[in-house]
Specification:
alpha+beta; 12-stranded mixed sheet; 297 residues; single chain; 12 strands; 36% helix; globular
Length: 297
């Protein structure tokens, strides 16, 4: 048993889907990525095929951990038993050696499992492991919109807003130090399912954005919360997040979730006031290859 790593989306779904859905809140990002691949095809995030992995105890039994990678993004790991987490770097290295995986530039996911991957990879390669971002998952316990709301109203974005959304998504990616998964196709997909909402001032000018994912196992995540610098500090972000959260509840979501950067106390405080409560921590790690030793005369 142990880790199975391959490019077969259907096999991964059949093997690990029930495990992921049984912990839908904790595995919401994995489930969202999986749903996107199933709806839009395995090239949804790039031309290189995704890699999927699941782990069973050596004595057999149910799947107890999962990992997937959609290049160029780093592997995304679920919570894992200690022996599964310890074994994953070796399994990944074997897949690299066999040409079934690329050398990872980092790892992300549940904090303990991701750090175990990082420790194991550093021990195998000598790479430096650096923390890119510590994050925290939150679930909505009870929506408490801030009153009074700022001037304006929420509006679901449509095709006419595509250029604005694309520009704001690029600015958002720069602000968080990452890249937009799926590029412009991701924006088009979000528009198609009504997954981006704008806060507009009374004069019709958009001043903030928030998004929502397609429901996965009943859970919806609030994503892509962005306010341009010139409009910050006026309550627009809180208003549009509240609107997106309310819309998800009204549409029947069993859970509404979001992820915060622990280095940003402003956003963490905002979401707490709106009714979001911590669930678990995650981490994003970068692997920095060791510099080759200089040749000696």
């Amino acid at each position: 048993m142990g880790w199975t790593l391959d490019h077969d989306l259907d096999r991964f779904t059949a093997a690990a889907g029930a495990h992921l859905r049984s912990r839908a809140v904790e595995n919401s990002v994995l489930l969202t990525v999986l749903d996107t691949l199933q709806r839009r095809g395995t090239d949804a995030y790039g031309a290189e095929p995704p890699l999927f992995g699941h782990w069973r105890p050596d004595g057999g039994g149910e799947v107890a951990a999962a990992v997937l990678q959609t290049p160029p993004h780093p592997p995304l790991v679920s919570a894992a038993p200690p022996d599964a987490a310890a074994a994953l770097p070796g399994a990944w290295a074997a897949a690299v050696a066999a040409g079934r995986a690329g050398t990872p530039a980092g790892v992300r996911g549940e904090a303990a499992a991701a750090r175990a991957f990082g420790d194991g990879w550093r021990a195998r390669t000598g790479d430096t492991v650096a923390v890119r971002r510590n994050t925290r998952f939150h679930r909505l316990a009870g929506l408490t919109p801030r009153e009074p709301a700022p001037p304006g109203a929420a509006r679901v974005a449509g095709p006419a807003d595509r250029d604005l959304l694309w520009r704001w998504h690029q600015e958002f990616a720069v602000s968080v130090g990452g890249i937009l998964p799926g590029g412009q196709k991701a924006v088009d997909d979000a528009i198609a399912h009504g997954g981006r909402t704008l806060w507009e001032r009374p004069d019709g000018r958009p001043v903030a954005m928030a998004g929502s994912t397609v429901p996965a196992a009943g859970a919806v995540r609030v994503v892509a919360v962005y306010t341009p610098q010139a409009h910050r500090g006026r309550g627009y972000a809180g208003a549009v997040v509240a609107a997106v959260s309310r819309a998800a509840l009204d549409a029947g979501a069993s859970e509404v979730l979001l992820v915060t950067d622990l280095a940003n106390p402003v956003s963490n405080g905002l979401y707490e006031k709106l009714g979001y409560r911590p669930v678990r921590d995650a981490v994003e790690l970068d692997f920095l290859p060791r510099e080759p030793e200089a040749a000696t005369a």
